[in-house]
Each structure stands twice: as C-alpha cells, then as structure tokens.
Amino acid sequence: MEATDNDFIAIRSVIERQLAAFQKDDAQTAFALASPGIREQFQNADNFMRMVSISYPAVYRPRSVFFEKITTIQDNITQPVLLLAPDGKPLRALYFMEKQQDESWKINGCILVSVEAETI
User: Taking a C-beta distance cutoff of 8 angstroms, is the pair 1, 77 a contact?
Assistant: First the structure.
C-alpha cells in the first residue's frame, strides 16, 4: 500500500493524539485511536490503559518524542518514533497503522526496539 503526504500527516496526528491522551490519563481517547482489532483484544479503555502503562512506559510517559520517516514493514505502513523512556533509555517505537473504511487511520499495534548507541 502506498501512503500519500496527507496520509503521513494523518498518521502522525493520530499518534500524537494518542501520546497526548496517555499523558493526561485519558483512556477513552487513547483507546478510540486504536484499531478495531486492538479494541476487541482489550475489550475496554481501562484494560488498554493498564497494559500500556505497565508494558510500554516509554509510550505512556515519554520524556521526548521524535518522528522518523514512515516506512513499510511486511506490507504494513509503519511510523517509527524515537522515544526517550522515563528512565532515560532511548527506544524506537514502531507503530503499525491501519487505514479504516472511512479513510481515517488507527494504530494497529506498536513494538519497541532498542536503539543502539553509535560511537564516532
């Protein structure tokens, strides 16, 4: 699937809105930005928020956020985001995005990968 410039803007906006919702402990908004499959998996906003706060502290309360260039991983439009975790550890969040029938974008999963420091 090819994404347009408008898609890139919309994807970034969805992720930014979800990160802002986590910052405010706004479970309903954060949950609403997840794909139908993710919402079905967690059943309700409280379960989703509890999972994120426990398993994804870098996403739940990042110290900094930097959006990288969108890519495709295994046919999934993926937005890499560099995060600084609460403990100061740099991580890359790979947000798998899903386009809905109404042309909106939802977050269809996120994995965290370590960022290896480069020596110069």
Answer: yes
Q: At what angle do helices 5-23 and 45-55 cross, to 10 degrees?
A: 90
What are the chain's domains?
Answer: 5-114 (3.10.450.50)
Tokens found for residue 102 = 């109404």
Nearest residue to 34 (alpha-carbon basis) of 24, 114, 51: 51
Residue 53: both structure tokens together: 């706060």
Neighbour count for residue 93 (Cβ, 10 Å): 21
pTM for the full predicted model: 0.91
With beta carbons less than 8 A apart as the criterion, state whether 63 and 90 touch: no
Q: How confident is the model over 76-88, as pLDDT tens digits?
A: 999 999 999 999 9
What residue has token string 């269809």?
Answer: 108
